[in-house]
Request: fold
Amino acid sequence: MAALSWAASLRAEEPLRPVSSAFMLEGGSSHLLDTYLSPLKYTGWHTAFSYQRAQAMKFAPATWRQQLDLGVEINNAGNPARNASLLYGNLSAAWSMSRLWRLPHRLTVTAGGRVEGNLGGIYSNRNGNNPASLKTDLSLGLTASLGWDVRLWRLPVALRWQTSLPLAGVFFSPAYDELYYEIYLGNDHGLAHFGWPGNMSRWDNLVTADLGLGNTSLRVGFRSRIYSTGVNHITTRTFSYSFVLGVVTDWLSVSRHRPLPASEAGVEWAY
Reply:
């Protein structure tokens, strides 16, 4: 009985770990280049929807954080003559775990590792023989953030910069003059390539300001996405710059089969 009581007291003293969820819409400009489809650079518009879920890790809630990122983006761009267009779409999923440091003056810094997968492609409305180019990759990389909690008069504001960059992975690319119909017929040699910063990059930067409005925060910010590959004499560049508008909420999951946490338990926020 004493052992059970001691274990229950330890469990009751575990800090609460609220989940921070953010839903974001993006809109801005895009710049596309894919020499498999066209030697010209295309410019147009960019739109995206993304979701972030962050929470303190259970094994070390005071110092470690995890974050899930899901997103879908669509870019549409035209050539300089405006008589042809490229349509780029991508689905992304990433999970990261980072070490958190709390610094003086309400500053926070995180740094850690990240695994990311992407599935997308570029479609040309002008090419009849080979109109599409598949863009997919899986990578391991680094992620980091810098945060600062301030007050704008009586309004709490959380300023944050997040960045991520892959270091190693694998990505798909055919040969320069290889048709996808040839791949369908069985010519599938040399389609997977080792990726490193010299031939594959997905640099994502997100700067946000979360304006505290009670239990919900309004997020405004700016985002840049830079995707670049170069292999088999094929160069791909997709750049997008967009404004961000979103909603951030913090919530706590409670099981009906377990007692509520003790009132003296501390709270470890995601950031």
